[in-house]
Amino acid sequence: GENVEQHPSTLSVQEGDSAVIKCTYSDSASNYFPWYKQELGKGPQLIIDIRSNVGEKKDQRIAVTLNKTAKHFSLHITETQPEDSAVYFCAASRGSSNTGKLIFGQGTTLQVKP
Amino acid sequence: DSGVTQTPKHLITATGQRVTLRCSPRSGDLSVYWYQQSLDQGLQFLIQYYNGEERAKGNILERFSAQQFPDLHSELNLSSLELGDSALYFCASSFTTGVDITEAFFGQGTRLTVV
Question: DSSP string covering B35-77, please?
Fold first, then answer.
């Protein structure tokens, strides 16, 4: 079935260090991979996404890489800041099935220590 | 602000009761998705509507139902509530249904507590 595994479940880094979160998906037909940031008491907020025809995408301090052969994708945050502290979710979607439903990973709680 | 509005923000109700959660999608978005977030299950897809029609179903219980109205707002109905139904319920909206995927934006959620 459809499944997304996310690691690690918690991550603690010093301010200024880099953080990496990894996800593996099971459905080889998945072709859209968004990342969401969820702060306490708020809904998930889209921070970056990548489609299957692209291997890497960057947006300032955030980058995402995709390896379709291995069915895994990763989120990289450089020069972390305390405001990056939140729960991060990866997700996968199979657009060709005519639905945009997202299958989420279990989430990673990122703590950035000042 | 994502542009997706969910009401109410908090709901406390007793076991066996029925509640209705409401979602107004972003202007122009045709797809509405409902997700359940609990501590041990993460974000689980429940159901999707596209332009008034059901498009996809996930692990939605038979006690739960949803609909999307002509003005595109959606309601999620939860009946015969059990303690285990306590969770955050999120609505998300996107412009397309999936063949040409566009970003999904989430509301702030409704926190349901069943006592």
Answer: EEEETTTEEEEEEEEETTEEEEE-S--TTEEEEE-TTS-EEEE
Partner residue facing A104 (CB), from B43, B48, B98: B43
Residue B76 exposed, middle or buried by CB count within 10 Å (0-12, 13-18, 19+): buried
From first to last of the 114 residues of chain A, give the pLDDT tens digit: 689 999 999 999 999 999 999 999 999 989 899 999 999 989 999 999 998 888 999 999 999 999 999 999 999 999 999 999 999 999 999 865 567 789 999 999 999 999
CB contact under 8 A, A102 and B105: no
B50: nearest CA partner in chain A: A99
CA distance linking residue A80 with residue B30, whole number of Å: 36
For chain B, the residue count is: 115
